Amino acid sequence: MGLRKNRPAEGAPVARRTMLTMLGAGAFGLATAPWLQDGWEKALGAASQKDPTGLTGVLPNPGGFRYYSVVGSVPRKDGTDYALRIDGLVDRPTTYTLEDLRALRQTRIVHDVLCTDGWRVENTPFEGVRLSDLLEAAGVRPEGRALRFTCFDGVYTESLTLAQARRSDMLVALRMQDKPITHEHGGPVRLYAAPMYFYKSAKWLSGISVTDKVVPGYWEEYGYDIDGWLDGEDRDGDGSAA
Amino acid sequence: MTSTDGSTARTATATAPRPERSGRVRRFSRAERLVHRATGWLMLLCVGTAACLYLAPLAQLVGRRHLLVTVHEWSGVLLPLPFLLGLASPAFRADLRRLNRFAAYDREWLRAVRRRLTEPRARPAGKFNAGQKIYAGWIAGAVLVMMATGLLMWFTGVLPTISRTSAIFIHDILAWGIAAVLIGHMRRAYRDPEARLGMRTGFVGRDWARTWHRHWTPEDPPAARGPGSGDAGRAG
C-alpha cells in the first residue's frame, strides 16, 4: 500500500519542461545575441549615466575596463622607481625613466579597445611615445626581426614583429582617457597596440628586447593568436589610418 | 553552502543514535547525499572562480588569471558528473522521477505562493514541493546552457556560425541569473535546519515531514521495522 502511495505522481513532467525551456531559451539567446546585446548595451549605457551605486559596472558589457592580472600581486611603481629598459639586438641599449619618456614626443590615439572576453570600450584615447621612435633611438641591428615585451609583474610577456611595432598606432602609453595610467590599468607605463586585441597591450611594461624571431607571449603560449589583429584592421598598413 | 557546511564531521555523530528511535525518517540515501555534496562543491568552485575572474575588486585581490580560468573551466565541465554517476543509484533515479512530475497539489502550492500564504496547510507537497521541482529543472537547464556557451568560449571556432561574443554574452547574463537563484536556494536551506539535516544525515523528523511534505510517505517507516533494525544510517 505504502509502495503504491509512494509512486511518483503521474502528473505533467514540469521539471523536464522547465529544463527544456531553459535550453530553448539558451539556443534562442545565442541565435539572437547580436541584437540582444545591442539593446542591452544601449539600455545599460543609459542606466549607467545615472547610477550612483556603480552597480551597472559589473553587469555584462558595462562599457568599462576589466582588471586582468596573471599573478597574485603586482608591485606598484611610479616616477621614482619606474624604468623601461630597451636592449637586445640594438646598437644603443637604453634605460628610460618615466621623466625621460614624458620628455619625448607624445602621440595621441583614439581607438576602440576590445578584449577577447567580449568587453569593449569605445573611442578610448591613449597618449604616449611611439614605439617606432624608441626603436629608432636605440638603433635596431639588421638581424632584429621582432620585439619581446616584459613586465614588472614578473610574469607577463608579449611580442610584436618589427613591422608591426613600427606602425604609428603602436604606443608606449603614459596616459589613458587623458589621465596618467593608474596602477590597475597597467600604469605608469603600458603598451598600447591599437589595432590588436587588448591582451597584446601589455600592462606594467618594463622591458623591450629586440629579438631575431618572434617569441610567443604569455597568453600566446596558451593558444591565443600571436598576431592579435582586430577584425577590419589594415594589417599591412603603417597604422597611419588610426 | 549552508546545507553542506561541516557535513563530514557531523554526519558521523548525527547518524550514531538510532534515527528511528527519535522519530526520524529516511529522506536521502548516501548516494543522493554524495551527489548533492559533490555538485555543491563543484558549483561553489565554479561560481567562486567566476567571481574572481569577473568582479574587479576580487580580480585585483586574487590575480592569477590562468589558474582561475583552469579551475573554472574544469569545475564547470565536471559539474554534471556527480549527477551522471548518481544515475546508477535506484534511490536517486526514483527521486528524479518525483522531482519531474507535477501533481495537483503542486499547483495548489504554487497558488499559495502567489497569494503569499506561508502556513504549511496551504502548501501541500509530496517528497519535494513545487518550488524544489521547478528549481531542479531550471538549474539543470541553466547548467547545460552555461556548459554549452562555456565550451564555445573555450574551443573557439567549433561552431563558426556562433560568434564568441554571443557565447560570452549569454554566459555572462545567465551567470547573474544562476547567482540569484543559488542565493535563493541557499537562503531556503539556511532557514530550514531540518531540511539541511536531511541532506546532511539522510534523516528528517517525522513531524517535519508530515507538516511540510504531507503527501510523501517515507519508504521505511519505523513502525514497519523491528526494534533491532537500526542500521538505516549505514544503509544510506
Explain how this protein is built.
The complex is a heterodimer of chains A (242) and B (236). By secondary structure, chain A is an alpha+beta fold. Chain A is built from five helices and eleven strands, in the order αβαββαββαββαββββ. Chain A folds into two domains: 45 residues, no CATH class; 140 residues, Sulfite Oxidase, Chain A, domain 2, CATH 3.90.420.10. Chain A has a five-stranded mixed beta sheet with strand order 3-2-11-6-7. In chain A, strands 4, 5, 8, 9 and 10 form a five-stranded antiparallel beta sheet that branches. In chain A, a hairpin with a 5-residue loop joins β6 and β7. The termini of chain A are far apart. In chain A, 33% of the residues are buried. With 236 residues, chain B is mainly alpha-helical. Chain B has a single domain, classed as Fumarate Reductase Cytochrome B subunit (Up-down Bundle), CATH 1.20.950. Chain B contains twelve helices and three strands. A two-stranded antiparallel ribbon of chain B has the order 1-3.
